[in-house]
């Protein structure tokens, strides 16, 4: 049996790059010492499978050479405005409420440097490495759309830091989600100008100057608009929401596996998963979840063994899994679509349109789409945990489950899973508070110039805690379901579940033992939390993995927002 300490964090997906299309297979990524996968970023065409792989790590990034023409043209447009003595916001003016202040040519470099330094006011713990990798990658993609007016060398430096594993230390708190993620992105920009700090692959912290030296560059003296382009944008909020989406997919998959195991444990009915029921309603997520459950249970000896047991209907937490989990899946798929578009977006301000020579101020930095997407993911994560906790309670209730009270043979002396369910209830309740939408909040900033904001950064950041809570709940349910299946099995002639579920039962048993009598369960709870988040090399079975948005995206949808074609 593996203890919680024995289970190490690994990724799950390996990328193959073919003609700009990113495809995934459900196998382990290369060993940390293996050569990283090469991934070319094509601005406007980076899909969810690629973003997931960037989050996991083990890739080297390069920019599509065709993007360089747009970068050059946008920078030339900015220079032509300066040469003509015109006034344009963010190029030769102050910022925010100071937009009416004209900056003389001799102080433009000072303007951009001061912008970065004055905005570096983040607080809190540094963002996780996977989130920072996403920030670097999608900031590079955004700038490379050719609407920001920065030198190609700025994009090259971001990718060089990524490839060297030198990750700017970005405090987690300080963004209101408009005008972009100003404070956290300022901490990223600090490294480019030789300020701030970066972490190394070995886990040490070095100065921004040393980080630049390690990629063979002197700190940048920022040109017109370059500081503003780096600070404006929704990349931190988007990266946080993407990281939340990817881990939400895992707890969703774990919840689906646990529900199938719980059904087997209580000898529940498969009739509610009949194709005709779900076709009659037509909700795509519901249809997909019911289909996955049928595949998970296909070949079970347990299902036909109680065909005439007299049970008419199971409780909703079993019977309505397709309806509840299907709605969660639909919401996650919608959020995935929004975030894939945003990860490819030019979201700074003003934007440069080199074809007409214009620089136009707008509001693409407002992260309202990201805030809504993160809030939708939060609702799905909370519901996955809520229905899982109810199935766990069902398993422990002998009147409903037909199992020994609290899933232990010698009850009274032993409490079994009694208090494990209390922990699950506590976390499910916590998630109800955390699921309150962040997007409905707003506080004006910048002397009321920026009078409505999205709070998207917090909307994305709180997903990590919610997912962790739900992973514990779902992990406890799966452990309890395995206990229930074992308690109902006849030693002389044991009935087996499907091949898929028997493999999952074995995988769980490698992590936690059968509870014969009370023991310290905290290590088992931790091991099952890791099971739910797939922090080892095992992937999800094919019927489940096939319906997850970031797995299914690349083969079925070609994303190209550069031509205005949306999925």
Short note summarizing the structure:
It contains 22 helices and eleven strands.
What this model shows, in words?
Helices cover 51% and strands 7% of the residues. The protein contains 22 helices and 11 strands. The chain has helices spanning 48-56, 68-83, 108-119, 129-143, 152-164, 182-192, 208-214, 226-231, 235-265, 275-281, 284-297, 302-305, 316-319, 321-343, 368-396, 398-401, 418-434, 456-488, 499-509, 522-533, 542-545, 549-556; strands spanning 14-18, 21-25, 37-41, 59-63, 123-126, 167-168, 171-173, 197-199, 205-207, 351-353, 358-360. Strands 6-8-9 form a 3-stranded antiparallel sheet. β8 and β9 form a beta hairpin. It starts with 13 loop residues before the first strand and ends in an 11-residue tail after the last helix.
Write the layout of secondary structure elements.
Elements: E1 14-18, E2 21-25, E3 37-41, H1 48-56, E4 59-63, H2 68-83, H3 108-119, E5 123-126, H4 129-143, H5 152-164, E6 167-168, E7 171-173, H6 182-192, E8 197-199, E9 205-207, H7 208-214, H8 226-231, H9 235-265, H10 275-281, H11 284-297, H12 302-305, H13 316-319, H14 321-343, E10 351-353, E11 358-360, H15 368-396, H16 398-401, H17 418-434, H18 456-488, H19 499-509, H20 522-533, H21 542-545, H22 549-556
Parallel strand pairs: 3-4
Antiparallel strand pairs: 1-2, 5-7, 6-8, 8-9, 10-11
């Amino acid at each position: 049996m593996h203890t919680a300490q024995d289970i190490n964090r690994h990724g799950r997906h390996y990328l193959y790059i073919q003609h700009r299309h990113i495809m995934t297979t459900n196998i382990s990524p290369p060993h940390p010492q293996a050569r990283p996968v090469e991934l070319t970023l094509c601005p406007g065409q980076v899909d969810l499978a690629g973003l997931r792989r960037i989050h996991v790590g083990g890739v080297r990034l390069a920019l599509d050479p065709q993007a360089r023409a747009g970068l050059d043209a946008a920078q030339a447009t900015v220079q032509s405005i300066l040469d003509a003595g015109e006034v344009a916001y963010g190029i030769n003016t102050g910022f925010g409420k100071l937009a009416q202040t004209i900056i003389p040519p001799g102080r433009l470099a000072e303007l951009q440097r001061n912008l970065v330094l004055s905005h570096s006011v983040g607080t809190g713990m540094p963002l996780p490495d996977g989130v920072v990798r996403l920030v670097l990658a999608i900031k590079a993609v955004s700038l490379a759309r050719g609407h920001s007016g920065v030198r190609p060398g700025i994009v090259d430096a971001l990718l060089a830091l990524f490839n060297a594993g030198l990750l700017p230390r970005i405090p987690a708190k300080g963004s209101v989600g408009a005008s972009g993620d100003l404070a956290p992105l300022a901490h990223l920009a600090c490294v480019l100008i030789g300020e701030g700090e970066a972490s190394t692959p070995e886990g040490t912290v070095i100065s921004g100057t040393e980080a630049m030296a390690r990629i063979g560059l002197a700190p940048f003296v920022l040109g017109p608009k370059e500081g503003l382009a780096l600070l404006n944008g929704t990349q931190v909020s988007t990266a946080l929401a993407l990281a939340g989406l990817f881990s939400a997919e895992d707890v969703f998959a774990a919840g689906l596996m646990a529900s199938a195991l719980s059904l087997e444990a209580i000898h529940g009915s498969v009739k509610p998963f009949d194709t005709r029921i779900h076709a009659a309603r037509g909700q795509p997520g519901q249809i997909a979840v019911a289909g996955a459950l049928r595949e998970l249970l296909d070949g079970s000896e347990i299902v036909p063994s109680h065909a005439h047991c007299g049970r008419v209907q199971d409780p909703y937490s079993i019977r309505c899994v397709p309806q509840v989990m299907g709605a969660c899946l639909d919401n996650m798929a919608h959020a995935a679509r929004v975030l894939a578009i945003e990860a490819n977006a030019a979201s700074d301000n003003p934007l440069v349109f080199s074809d007409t020579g214009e620089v136009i101020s707008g509001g693409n930095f407002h992260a309202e789409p990201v805030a809504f997407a993160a809030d939708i993911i939060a609702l799905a994560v909370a519901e996955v945990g809520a229905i899982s906790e109810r199935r766990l309670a069902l398993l422990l209730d002998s009147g409903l489950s037909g199992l020994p009270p609290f899933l232990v043979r010698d009850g009274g002396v032993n409490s079994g899973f009694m208090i494990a369910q209390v922990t699950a209830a506590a976390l499910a309740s916590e998630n109800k508070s955390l699921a309150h939408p962040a997007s409905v909040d707003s506080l004006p900033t910048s002397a009321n110039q920026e009078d409505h904001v999205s709070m998207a950064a917090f909307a994305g950041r709180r997903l990590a805690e919610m997912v962790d809570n739900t992973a514990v709940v779902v992990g406890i349910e799966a452990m309890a379901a395995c206990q229930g299946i074992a308690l109902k099995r006849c030693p002389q002639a044991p009935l087996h579940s499907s091949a898929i579920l028997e493999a999952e039962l074995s995988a769980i048993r490698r992590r936690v033992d059968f509870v014969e009598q009370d023991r310290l369960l905290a290590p088992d709870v931790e091991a099952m939390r890791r099971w739910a988040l797939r922090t080892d090399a095992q992937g999800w079975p094919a019927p489940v993995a096939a319906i997850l948005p970031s797995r299914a995206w690349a083969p079925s949808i070609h994303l190209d927002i550069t031509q205005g074609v949306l999925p």
